[in-house]
Amino acid sequence: MPKIMLAEDDLTMLRLLNTLLGLEGFETVSLKPDEDVLDAVARELPDVLLLDVHLPQGSGLDFLRQMRADSRFEGLVVLMASGMSLNEECLAAGANGFLLKPFMPDTLINSIRTLLSA
Fold this sequence. Notes:
- The chain has 5 helices and 7 strands; from the N terminus they run βαβαβββαβαβα.
- The chain is of the alpha/beta class.
- It has a single domain, classed as Rossmann fold, CATH 3.40.50.
- The radius of gyration is 13 Å and the shape is globular.
- The two termini are 16 Å apart.
């Protein structure tokens, strides 16, 4: 069962994502609002990190750049999400994919499955 880590600042969205992904057969782990992103990812070793661009801890783009420069995260699949159209910036920073919020549940599931099978 693939493990998905959720780094999302909206608690309602976090609950919905946990439920949706659980129903689809994924194991989910949620980043706590005050938790260090890099430490949590290194500890949990998820198959996919669903990373919001805006987090209480800082910029998801900055965290992504740090992960891409760190060999501990080699091979980590990162799917970025934002309410702003930041597709090009996220991909340039090293994301494997980007979702514009709000997105449909099927779009998320299909994106995750496609990234895992790549």
